[in-house]
Amino acid sequence: MALFDEYEDYDALGLAALIRDRRTTPGELLYAALDRVATRNPGVNAVIHLMEDSARETISRGLPPGPVSGVPFMLKDLHALCDGEPTTNGSRLYQENVADHDSTIIARYREAGLLLFAKTNTPEVGISGTTEPVLHGPTLNPWDRSRSAGGSSGGGAAAVITGMVPVAQATDGGGSIRSPAANCGLFGLKPTKARTPAGPDAGEGWSGLATYHVVSRTVRDSAVFLDVAHGPEPGDPYTAPVPDGDFLAEVGRDPGRLRVALWTEGLCGELIDPECVLAAERVAGRLAELGHMVTPAVPPVSGDECRRAITTILVGHTANHVTLRLKALGRALRSDDLENITRLAAEEGNRQSARDYANALVMAHRTGRQMAGFFDEYDVILSPTLADPPLPLRGLDMMGDDLDFYMDRLWGHMAFTPLYNLSGCPAASLPMHMTPEGLPVGVQIGAAFGNEALLFRLAAQLEEADPWWDRRPPSLTTEV
User: Fold this and answer.
1) Which domain CATH number covers 351?
2) Within a domain: residue 6?
3) Could you tell me if residue 478 is inside a domain?
4) One of 76, 119, 190, 193 is an active-site residue; which one?
5) Which entry of 176, 216, 423, 429 is annotated as an active-site residue?
6) Residue 429 annotated in active site
7) pLDDT per residue over 414-438, tens digit each?
8) Number of domains composing the chain
9) Cα separation of 70 and 90, whole Å?
10) Structural domain includes residue 2
11) Against a cut of 0.70, is the pTM above it?
12) Percent of the chain having pLDDT more than 90?
């Protein structure tokens, strides 16, 4: 089969349009994607499992029509199940885990005609801001292989920025879409709580902190992927507000003159790297040039309470995941099943009380109401995405032996992202800045609960004003 050389010249919507115009075929695109995985993945370790035979069978059966039908797509190897394929969750405890059904969101991707052909690397059970699992090895940042690609969707982000796919699935429970988007130079939106389904095996992820979506090179791809995936399913415990129309239709619409809060200081006194502050300030200047009103302001929430609530929820769910997996295996925990921090988090979760968990939910709901009041005053919050440029590998070491030290370092690095998980509000990282050393730095925009539409309008305006499409790592071969 001929290799479709122009594969990387198009985003997902562009590739789908070429298929509809009969200028290429799903088979040619799959071949192009597989060729790039073969040549580029050895340099970054983004892809940990191929589903080539399944993808070819899907093509032979015929693909459902849709806006992204026929486009190659990678799934994150975390929680969401793909029938007949392994879901290791980046952990030796799950390495023999093979799904016997599709999760709802995977079924929706199939219904959209996507070619599911690979799974991407993730840290163990998704609890790290870097992607360096013992099971699969670290995903390297394509801009500097001594640094992290971010986490927990680092594998997907590295695959997209190196041109293996235009879009990859991602999840976000504390910043895990926005962190790798910032570290790799991509667009990554965390949707509103309950916007995308967690079923049929769960009603929500991490007590509502976590949600599914994608990382992409373009804003419009992110919008159309939310169109094909969002919406409740029977049995959901609650739903996100119903959007007024398609999210894709918001891309290119005038956002109006917005009241923007510029937030550049950590809620818990975190040290924010000057390059990250500079990135936000430069975008603030650009927004002012575009006619928006920018005012320095800090969300009126307790950073300590936010950290405490999220940590309680995280360790509680880690303990529960481990307990359920061991029950399914019918055995006790072994010394080599888990990385040190995961084991310590599970142990801490087992020590937490029901009162601790209930209090964490109270703090989450309080934070949501505080943010709602703040968004009465401002339309958008602008901040750095992270407190640092891409960290050196092992900057967040899951094999350490001090959980408190690890969590302090994790929340110090993810200083600006978890607030949106706790409140349920949507937020997106935009690739708007590069350091003098050539490392990407993201800026984050957040909006009120249910208002992804505004984020797509504003992100598209910035994408047009300061395009990032051609910004790619200097080498896209095996020697990335």
Assistant:
1) 3.90.1300.10
2) no
3) no
4) 76
5) 176
6) no
7) 999 999 999 999 999 999 999 999 9
8) 1
9) 28
10) no
11) yes
12) 98
